[in-house]
Amino acid sequence: MEALKGLLFINDIDAYVAYGAFLSADRRGEFRNLSALLTPPTMKPYVAVAFREEDGEQLPQQLPTPAFEARDIDLRFAIVADSAAEFMQRYADFVAMLRSGWLELRVADVPGKIRVYYKSSTEFSQLTPIGGGAVAGKFNVKFREPNPASR
Predict the structure, then answer these.
(1) How does pLDDT run across 123-150, given as a tens digit for each residue?
(2) What is the pTM of this model?
(3) Helix or strand or coil: residue 69?
(4) Pairing relationship of beta strands 102-107 and 8-10 according to DSSP bridges
(5) Ranges of each domain in the chain
(6) What CATH number does the domain located at 2-30+70-150 have?
(7) Nearest 5°: CA angle at 108, between 104 and 110?
(8) Alpha carbon distance 9, 48 (integer Å)
(9) Strand ranges (DSSP E) for the chain?
(10) Cys-Cys link to 71, which of 41, 49, 84, 116 (CB 3.0-4.6 A)?
C-alpha cells in the first residue's frame, strides 16, 4: 500500500515503512485523528479576584500573555503485515517505540511537529484472523503533549 508511505513520521521514521502502522478510522469519512490533532488546547485560566460585596470578578485591564494547558491526544492506529509472525514483530516493535521516551509526530497535512510521550492504549481490535495470509489490527493510543505552544 504505497499510498500510506510518507503520511506519518514518528521521530523522523516513516511509521508505515518501519512498523506497518498508520492512522486509521473506524469508518469511511471519519476524521477523528485529524480532529484530535487540530483541536486547539485549553487555555490556562487568568487569575481573577472575586469580592463578596461586588458582582462578577475583577481582572487586570491588560491581560497577561495567554498560555495553554497540557493536553492529551487520542489517536487510532492500525498495523498491517503479510503474516502472523511479521504482524507480531511489527506490533512489538511499535509498542517498544511508543515506550522509548519523547516522540515527535509529524503528520501529512498537519503543520509542525508535535512533541509527545506515550500515556496509554485501549481497544485493541484484531481485524483479520491470525493465521494464513495478511494480518491487521487496530488500537487507540493516548499521548500527552506537555507544551502545546511549542509547535
Answers:
(1) 788 777 666 778 899 999 999 999 997 7
(2) 0.85
(3) coil
(4) antiparallel
(5) 2-30+70-150
(6) 2.40.30.200
(7) 75
(8) 42
(9) 8-10, 13-14, 21-23, 71-81, 102-107, 114-126, 135-145
(10) 41
